[in-house]
Design a protein that fits this description.
Order of helices and strands: HHHHHHEEEEEEEEHHEEHHHH
Distance between the termini: 37 Å
Number of strands: 10
Largest sheet: 4 strands, mixed
Number of helices: 12
Structural class: alpha+beta
Shape: globular
Helix content: 40-55%
Strand content: 15-25%
Radius of gyration: 21 Å
Length: about 375
Amino acid sequence: MDRDFYTEDHELYRATVREFLLREVVPHHESWDEARWIDRAVFAAAAKNGIYALQIPQRYGGAGELDYRYRMIVCEEVARVHAGSFAVSLGLQDDLVLHYLLDLTTDEQKQRWLPGFATGEIIGALAMTEPGAGSDLQGIRTEARQDGEDWILNGQKTFISSGIMADVVIVAARTDPTGSTKGLTLFVVERDMPGFHRGRKLAKIGLPGQDTAELFFDNVRIPGANVLGGVGRGLPNLMSHLPRERLGISAGAIALSRAIFDLTREYCFTRTAFGKPIGDNQHIRFELAEMATELDVAEAYVDKSVLAYNAGRLSPVDAAKGKWYTSELQKRIVDRCLQLHGGYGYMSEYPVARAYTDTRIQTIYAGTTEIMKEIIGRDLAL
């Protein structure tokens, strides 16, 4: 089916993204994974070339472009060059951190942080998860108590994406010990604040170049000017940004699934066995036919979700539907594509092998599949 989703301007932008990736990412992403560290200079280069942070208003150094289709193009093109760690790191900035800084900041805070974000000089992280609190935000134990105009922050976070690299970390902390729904507040913790310590860089089974860390806060003094979105507003502020985060997962999932499918389709019709391409076997053709159909159907939902987001109409429930379905689809597609590659699929030099380990986290972060179904199920109750 024709995909009348992009305009000529979008395709011109795609050419810019492709050129940037070939120059700045393709020669390096494998060495980044080996080093378990992405050279942060690439973020400055990406920002300079308009690869992310397009939404930042022009007065703060951005383009003021709100159309999510440009972000979708970046997802598709990064997936096409199989740079998984870079894709997730970029998505964290564009789909999570940036929108907290755009939506919840005062004019003074915007002036402090957005210009640096627009140039790629400031890298951000979002710190919600704790050893005893993941999807259940009510279980957060990190706390902040007021001391004059300041706040004193104590606690720890884990599984924080870009936690080592980040210059600013948006931290969810409990400010009301009674445990009420107004008990959470967001704070911006900056790199050199005394008492802010970064723990070990966590070893993962996938996405090795994208750093994930433990963070510790030991009597960190946070000025009142670093409260984000108002005292006691942490929970609704977090909830209001979940549709964008989950749309980002859906966009990345469908893009990666499509890229690995295209690679596998080509492999099946060039790899021969028993004197003919393996794609000439009916079973292989049926496998490819099923995946092609599933991808087209899911892509239509994601495209509609993007347009709904652009119009301000993407609901948390609809975003949850897309997130769980496309991330589970990604798992199925990549697993089947690895199988069709045979022994080569198990070799780490092949993109499908790296995609296999990178993919596993998709159904976990930004809300597990089980949590997504719970959100949808509650909405269905009479």
